[in-house]
Structure formats: structure tokens, C-alpha cells
Amino acid sequence: MFNRDRWNEILEALTANWFRTILTAFGVFWGIFILVILLAAGKGLENGVKQGFGDIATNTMFMWTQVVSKPYKGLPKGRRYNFKIGDVVSIKDQVPGLLYVSPRNQLGGFGGTNNVVRGLNTGAFNVYGDYPEIIKQDPITITSGRFINYGDIENNRKVAVIGHGVEKELFKPGEVSVGDYIKIQGVNFMVIGTYKKKSGDGDGEEGQKEIYVPFTSFSQAFNYGDRVGWMAITATDQNSITNLKKDIIDVVKVNHTIHPDDDRAVGNFDLYEEFSKINGLFVALRGVAYFVGILVLLSGIIGISNIMLIVVKERTKEIGIRRAIGASPWAIRGQILLESMFLTIISGMLGIAVSTGVILIINKVLDGMPTNDDTMFANPSVDLTVVFVALLILITSGLLAGLIPAQVAIKTKPIDALRTE
């Protein structure tokens, strides 16, 4: 219940020496401020790094062939081999828990010779032979037309989906690219769609300069036969691709007569494993932020406890009088604890408010900066859980800060307190 006299007494005690009260409260203010800012900065860094993954399916591994490093069944080491379409079928049949197994072939690329022509315009672009599932593993935004489908695959249609960078170099402003033709290494392909990369996958502008064509028509047009350059393999949500990786590689080793212990013959990049490491790093960073913030906060709590001891010493005679006229030990203890909690919570809430304002300003500045997919810092923020944790810390800290002074106050005998000068 609200007691005006008690709160007037608290305010008088805390305002009797403004300068001392402000310096004491600053320790708690600074501790909470540092805690919130560190957590927000960690979240901003986490958002920036994860933004680099974009919408790519993180439960994915990429696999390619390398040189065989061990002889096996009469076959020498140092030999080269190629994935085949049969490997894709074997992996799908023999390894349960997989969502997509996408074979891919590739031509050209940045820094290579010009491999795409339209009229008098030429360019060097990455050309991928893909299956429709690739758009779910490495998402892109279709801005006009459509992406390749299984009708294109089954009928070996010579169709292509081009990036905005390709369209800009091969077509004049205002020209409609969909329905027109481009020539890839002398073979005509009809443009059926244009795309824009959703994610900042590290490619920058080159990510918009890629061409997707059906895997089957790619193999037919460029004499790849049943060869597969590499694969993108995604597991279902219930399975980790990291746990399935060995089974997948074992299937390839059996198909190509590779020694079971030859770990160099099949190259792979486990995106899920790398993503898990990054998540672990940010969990550790949050732990460090809490550790540092709470340590700074504790120094402020110790300061409040020391000041409350001084306040109790200054009010010894007052406490003695209250005890003499019948105040219970709990009433004295409650008064000291209430003063300590009030000072702690007010200064802590001010720290939360100021840190929130700083975060809002930083976000405004970031929003006003040019968009860059390669940024490593984005949208620093703290959620409501952090605020509740901070409030819990403040309440607990206030109780701890006033506990020792309160015990000192009630241990003083009334007669001794009245004699104090």
C-alpha cells in the first residue's frame, strides 16, 4: 500500500546530498547501459553476418570431385573422375532424410572469355545448368517471366533465366528481354525470365551476372553427356546434413571405386556446420556481454551498498528514536531496503531508457546509409527478454545493496543509538 510519509522520508534521505546520490546512481546506470549496448551490438553483428547467408538453405552441403589420393582395387592414386547422373539417383535412393539433391554444371565466369552474345553485345558470365530445386536452395527473386521447370528439363528446352546484370549488358534500356534470344557459346537460348539476387552471398555485382538454363539442355548443347560438375544437397528440417554427410560421400566412393579411407577424393563444404559454428560464436558473445555488463553493474551495486551504510550511520539517532517508540525491526529493515531498491531501479531504468535511445539513433543512421549486402552490422536491437532480465537484475541488486545496511540498522540497540552524537 502507498504510504506518503514513507516515500517523503525516502526522497528526503536521497536528496539530502544530491551530488553523492547522483554519483552513486551512476554506477548502476552505467552497468545497465553497458549491458544493453553490448547485447545490442552483438545482435547487430549477428544480423549482419547472417544477412550474408541471405535466404540460402543453411542445412546444405556442396560436393565436388578431387584427385584420388589412394590406390584401390588395382586403380592407381592420382586419377581423376567425374560425378555422373547415376550418383544423384544413388544418393537419393540410399540416403534417407534428404530434401533436395541438385546436380549442377557450369561454364565461363568473371574474368573469363566472352561466352554470351546478343547482336553486337557480348559478355563473360557464369552459365549454370540446373534443376528447378536450386531456387529453393539458393533463392533468387524472379522479376519477370519465370524460372526453369520440369517441363524444360524433360523436353531439353533451350531456355534461360538471366540476372539484371546480364540484361543490362546485353539489352538496351527499355528493351524487353523475356522472349528474346541470347547465344551461349554459339547455341541459341530463349530468355524466359529475369532475376535479382535476394541475398548478399559475397558475389556483389557479379551475383546479378549469372544465367540459369535447364541441366538437360546444358548437357546436350555443350556435350557434357551424363557428367555432373558438382552437387548442392539439402537435408530435411528433421535431419542435419552434417550427420548425413558421411553416408553421402560413402555412396560416391562405392560408385567410383574409391578407397573407403580416402578423405581427399571427394571435396565438400558443409554450410550447416559453418552456420552452427557462427551460432555458437554469437552465443559466446552474448555470454561475454552479460558477464561484462553484470560485473560493471555489480561495481555500481557495491557503491550503493557503501552509501547506504553511510546513510544508516548518519541516521543512527533517528533509527534509535523510531526503535524506542515501537518501530519493529522489519519496519526499519524494510525502510532501508526500499530506499536501496528505489535508487537502484530508478538509475537502472534510466540506463535502459538512454541505451534504447542510443540504439534507435544507431538504427536511424544505418537506415540512412546506402544498402550494402556485404555489411557486417545490421539492425542492432534487444528483445523484451533482455529488458525483463535487466529488471530482474535491478530488483535483485537493489535488495542485495540494502541488505547489509538494513542488518546493521536493526542490530543497533535503541539506547546506544540515542547516545550517538
UniProtKB/TrEMBL annotation:
Compartments reported by the entry: Cell membrane
Keywords: Cell membrane, Membrane, Transmembrane, Transmembrane helix
Domain MacB-like periplasmic core: residue ranges: 21-249
Ranges where the ABC3 transporter permease C-terminal domain occurs: 291-414
Membrane-traversing stretches: 21-41, 288-312, 342-362, 382-404
Lineage: superkingdom: Bacteria
Record membrane topology: Multi-pass membrane protein
UniProt cross-references to Pfam families, sorted A to Z: FtsX, MacB_PCD
Similarity remark: Belongs to the ABC-4 integral membrane protein family.
Name under which the protein is recorded: ABC transporter permease
Species in which this protein is naturally found: Aquimarina hainanensis
